[in-house]
Amino acid sequence: MKKQYVSLLVILLAASGFLFSCGNTVNKNAGALEFDSIQVNEVGHLFGDTAKPSCNIIINFAYASKSTDEKLRDSLNTYFLSACFGDKYMTLKPEEAVKLYKETYIKDYLKDLEPMYAKDDAEKEDSTELVAWYSYYKGIESHVQFYKKHLLVYRIDYNEFTGGAHGVYMSTFLNMDLRTLSPVRLDDIFVGEYKEALTDLLWNQLMADNKATTRQEVEEMGYTSTGDLEPTENFYLSDKGITFYYNIYEIAPYVMGPVEITLPYEIMSHLLSDEKGVLIMNS
């Protein structure tokens, strides 16, 4: 039953999306959603002086602009806003939220750093070093990565620099079941005591990706030096399988970057939940 389900799941994913009828393209995905984006690129200088350090905020926020189901559109945008900017922005319209977030970021930067900069500047600290330590940057970019039938995957990329040696960046994913208007969690996808078996599959795939035959070999490469390898809720679904995404420092040092491990549905057939899979994939 499990193997049959996985084969059906893959077929449904591959066949879903845009279907053609009488020469016209018809969106058969749930809600026939259309998307747009709001873009911001603004700089705020300390004391309003362009010769002094500044902060730069860049936003590219993707949101649902049209749908045959207004409730679906509005609910999705609530999730998108919360995931990108925080719960305090989730009740606002996309344009209002982006504007307020941008203004708050610049306002907080000026309020927090102007007193410190004035003190350091008065003490004749090295100006080059001051510029480096007081120059801030924040980027938030999102897009719809996958949208077929009742499954939508939304990706958010963060990038922030607050002085120091280097910035920090990370990516997060929101897998939405459009039928229930709720995020998909690991406990929805898998059944029973799945975590240990899933961890073994992750290790096996990580070894295969790195052409290693033992866990020790990949550990010597740097993997798991900063954290244990275990299933993470930061994953995304596709027609190929489930990709588990580990940001910098989670299981490997900064220099190695983020780590992605994709497990095909077929090798997880004994762990997958029939009920949730059918709920998400069926039209």
UniProtKB/TrEMBL annotation:
Residues 187-266 form the DUF3298 domain. The keyword Signal applies. Residues 53-168 form the Deacetylase PdaC domain. It comes from the Bacteria. Residues 1-21 form the signal peptide. Pfam families: DUF3298, PdaC. Keywords: Signal. InterPro entries: DUF3298, PdaC, PdaC/RsiV-like_sf. This is DUF3298 domain-containing protein. It comes from Bacteroides oleiciplenus YIT 12058.
